[in-house]
Amino acid sequence: MSVDKTIRVSEETRERLHEMKDVGESYDDVITELIRERRMRNREELAERMRETEEMDSDDLVPLDG
């Protein structure tokens, strides 16, 4: 079920969102895409940190089992 809510943004932010919109797209479409892109970037950054940790010399790591 969709419920419309008012989200307050500055005029500058609204203008930037408007510039990002394609013909026929709603602000909801633009914001949904921004959220998707942010989540993907976060996942990629986490995966990169995991790779870096796996490549570390075990002497640089602290054991968790005390």
Structural description of this entry:
The protein is mainly α. The chain has a domain at 17-55. It has helices at residues 11-20, 27-55. The model has no long low-confidence stretch (mean pLDDT 90).
Query: How would you spell out the order of helices and strands?
Result: HH
Oligomer: single chain
What is the tally of helical segments? Answer: 2
Shape annotation: elongated
Mean pLDDT comes to 90
Helical fraction: 55-70%
List keywords for this structure.
66 residues, mainly alpha, 2 helices, 0% strand
Short description:
59% of the residues lie in helices and 0% in strands.
Topology:
Blueprint: H1 11-20, H2 27-55
